[in-house]
């Protein structure tokens, strides 16, 4: 659906050249929710703005829904933009228009007749859960409601791609969740490709299928969300993974645990996908004569299922503990054995 | 109570003042809006930034905004003669009123447009809007409250200008107050003319404020 090849973007400022995007190549598949995470200044905002050509690349090629963006005439570009909608951090609604009129705006631009617009607005208001608020003005809405209007407006022209530019960054956590749920909902219902940028790992973990991590204009890591979560490679990725409390680099914690739990065997279980939903532990404990003690853990829900890490202390005959670990392993749960004191 | 006031003449001159204010105000609105829009779009990278057009229009606006009105009228006498055919009466005051007020209003329109969040313009652009669609579907409606309050202020200024125009041959209450009131030492005439001018100003301000409250949707 979207293909970037060796895309670079630099800005020439008074203080010299600023390289915002540095040789980025990536492919985003149709129907996926693709997240780009990075700190401010990493270039993610510029990158997403290249995808509807609010910025033009300095070099490289960008293909979106079959059109090579840099080769389009202004008229062709407007056609593509109808197909690639954007949702903004600060909503960017028209204050002078009601909810219904805001949603109707992109349809007016392309000359859709009034009766058709009205029908479409009714559908969209329903879809984003704003029924009854059609005649309110943006100033009368909460942040979450404003973003719902922004999303409805973006969907009005039946786009294939939805670009979310920090769409939840101005919202409180609870509202963020409800907006993310809405995005997943429309991704499933409409088969829309969603590209979102964020600095919150929570957002990636909750709704994305794949993620790219950006630092200093480059994509430093890219992959399935579950893989990146379980095996972050770059230091920056590890930082982001820590953000949501998914304990990864545990060396310090292990030192601590060894001191506190000198007996038994401490193991770290990594759950992924459906394994987290099955009673693996209780099955294993039933068939092996050992006791266990939960030390700590973190299991969260993501777009691909449950993800998480669990630390447990297994107490029993060393041989039996070994067998128990082997049988947990056979259930496709990753096990790391962290101490050998028994 | 007002021995020297001829109410028929007073009424007639009141109408002349209202006539000058409304006609000059209408033309000022049109020219000022156009000039202000040109100033804005030629200075905004998201629209049609054009350094040279902006510089020329901006200089023109600054020059005419800076000339004291009473001097502007005198400077424009030859121009008025060509356009209107006479330099006496209310209609003859119109060119000077418009040329004096439109640049003033143009700056207000430019400021009103600059208040618009650029994100909204980008949003429209991201939806495939043409520049022209951005102008009449985004810029104009979004800036409308400030555009209206700006024309209110400008109309009040125009009422003041009409009085000055009256002194140098224009019609209206200013002319009456000066010729009949001041030069013939009839203070009651000056007084009544002043009160009527105040009433006109208050009515303009009242209508303007009401309109702005109605169209301003920025606060809940």
UniProtKB/TrEMBL annotation, chain B:
Membrane topology designation: Multi-pass membrane protein
Transmembrane recorded as keyword: yes
PROSITE patterns per the UniProt record, alphabetical: ABC_TM1 (PS50928)
Transmembrane segments: 20-41, 53-77, 83-106, 143-169, 189-208
Keywords, comma-separated and alphabetical: Cell membrane, Membrane, Transmembrane, Transmembrane helix, Transport
Domain ABC transmembrane type-1: 14-208
Annotated compartments: Cell membrane
Main location as per UniProt: membrane
Family of this protein: Belongs to the binding-protein-dependent transport system permease family.
Name of the featured protein: ABC transporter permease
């Amino acid at each position: 659906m979207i293909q970037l090849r060796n895309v670079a973007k630099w800005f020439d400022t008074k203080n010299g050249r600023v390289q915002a995007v540095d040789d980025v190549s990536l492919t985003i598949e149709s129907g996926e929710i693709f997240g780009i995470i990075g700190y401010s200044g990493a270039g993610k905002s510029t990158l997403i703005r290249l995808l509807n050509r609010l910025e033009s690349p300095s070099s490289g090629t960008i293909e979106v829904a079959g059109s090579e963006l840099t080769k389009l005439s202004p008229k062709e570009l407007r056609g593509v933009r109808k197909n690639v909608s954007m949702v903004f951090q600060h909503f960017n609604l028209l204050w002078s228009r009601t909810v219904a009129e805001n949603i109707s705006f992109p349809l007016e631009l392309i000359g859709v007749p009034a009766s058709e617009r009205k029908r479409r607005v009714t559908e969209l208001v329903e879809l984003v859960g704003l029924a009854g608020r059609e005649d309110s003005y943006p100033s009368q809405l909460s942040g979450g409601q404003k973003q719902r209007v922004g999303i409805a407006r973006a969907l009005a022209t039946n786009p294939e791609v939805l670009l979310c530019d920090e769409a939840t960054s101005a919202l409180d956590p609870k509202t963020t969740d409800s907006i993310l749920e809405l995005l997943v909902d429309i991704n499933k219902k409409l088969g829309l490709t969603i590209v979102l940028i964020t600095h919150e790992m929570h957002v990636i973990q909750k709704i994305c299928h794949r993620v790219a991590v950006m630092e200093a204009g480059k994509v430093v890591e890219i992959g399935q969300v579950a893989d990146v979560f379980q095996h972050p490679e770059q230091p920056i990725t590890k930082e982001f993974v820590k953000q949501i409390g998914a304990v990864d680099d545990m060396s310090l914690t292990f030192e601590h645990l060894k001191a506190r739990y000198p007996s038994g065997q401490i193991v770290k279980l990594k759950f992924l996908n459906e394994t987290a939903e099955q009673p693996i532990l209780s099955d294993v404990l039933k068939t092996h004569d050992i006791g266990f003690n939960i030390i700590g853990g973190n299991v969260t829900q993501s777009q691909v299922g449950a993800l998480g890490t669990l630390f447990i202390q297994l107490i029993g005959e060393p041989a039996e503990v070994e067998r128990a670990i082997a049988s947990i392993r056979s259930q496709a749960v990753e096990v790391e054995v962290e101490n050998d004191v028994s | 109570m007002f021995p020297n006031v001829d109410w028929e003449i007073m009424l007639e001159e009141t109408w002349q003042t209202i006539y000058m204010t409304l006609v000059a105000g209408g033309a000022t609105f049109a020219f000022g809006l156009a000039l202000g829009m040109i100033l804005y779009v030629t200075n905004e990278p998201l629209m049609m930034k054009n350094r040279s057009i902006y510089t020329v229009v901006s200089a023109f606006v600054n020059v005419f905004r800076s000339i004291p009105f009473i001097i502007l009228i005198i400077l424009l006498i030859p121009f008025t003669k060509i356009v209107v055919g006479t330099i006496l009466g209310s209609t003859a005051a119109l060119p000077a009123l418009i040329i004096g007020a439109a640049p003033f209003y143009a700056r207000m329109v430019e400021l009103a447009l600059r208040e618009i969040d650029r994100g909204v313009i980008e949003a429209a652009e991201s939806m495939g809007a043409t520049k022209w669609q951005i102008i009449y579907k985004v810029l104009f409606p979004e800036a409308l409250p400030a555009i209206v309050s700006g024309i209110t202020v400008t109309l009040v200024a125009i009422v003041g200008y009409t009085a000055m125009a009256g002194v140098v041959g224009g019609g209206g209450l200013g002319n009456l107050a000066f010729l009949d009131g001041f030069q013939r030492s009839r203070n009651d005439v000056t007084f009544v003319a002043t009160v009527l001018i105040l009433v006109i100003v208050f009515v303009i301000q009242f209508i303007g404020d009401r309109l702005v409250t109605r169209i301003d949707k920025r606060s809940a």
